[in-house]
Design brief:
Layout: E1 3-11, E2 23-28, E3 35-37, E4 44-49, H1 52-59, H2 62-72, E5 76-81, H3 85-89, H4 109-121, E6 126-129, H5 133-164
Parallel strand pairs: 1-2, 4-5, 5-6
Antiparallel strand pairs: 1-3
Length: 165
């Protein structure tokens, strides 16, 4: 059963996209984020990180800094993490970094936490620790549904306000 009111846009570069079985989906290149709503790409972007290792690698890349700047310019921007806070706190334990390399890592749990807080405080990006892919996909669905209906009501009340004049 698909929600007929909106279509979820999945970025064409997303290699293992969430299924969104209850929604219509379309694959298009998104300038920002991995997921959005068709027609609301200028307002909403959801960025997804599958692991602490992916996040740790991305956080020091200039390309990711560009993503953050674009996300911060949107009305609604989210970073959904498919892992828990505990995974950050024990990094690199449980990561894809080989144990023999742990003493060479310059990225610490404190550094990762500092960056997550900066994403929220400085850049107004809402960050959710979702635990796994299934929960992250469900969270994305709830976010998109809520924003779609909020924006639909905003447009409806705006057009009613202008017709009253």
């Amino acid at each position: 059963m698909n929600d007929p009111d909106f279509t979820i846009i999945v970025d064409t570069r997303e290699q293992q996209p969430w299924g969104f079985s209850h929604f219509a989906t379309a694959h298009k290149k998104l300038d920002t984020g991995d997921y959005s709503i068709d027609g609301l790409q200028h307002l909403l972007a959801i960025e997804r990180k599958k692991s602490v290792s992916e996040f740790a690698n991305n956080i020091v890349e200039s390309r990711f800094k560009d993503v953050i700047m674009r996300l911060s310019q949107l009305k609604y921007s989210f970073l959904l993490l498919e892992f828990d806070l505990e995974d950050i706190m024990i990094y690199p334990i449980g990561s894809t970094v080989p144990k023999r390399m742990w003493d060479k890592i310059k990225i610490s749990p404190a550094f990762l936490l500092k960056n997550i807080l900066e994403l929220q405080i400085k850049h107004n990006i809402i960050v959710y620790f979702c635990g796994d892919s299934t929960n992250a996909e469900k969270m994305a669905e709830y976010i998109m549904k809520k924003i779609y209906y909020m924006e639909k009501n905003n447009m409806k009340s705006s057009s009613e306000d202008s017709s009253d004049e």
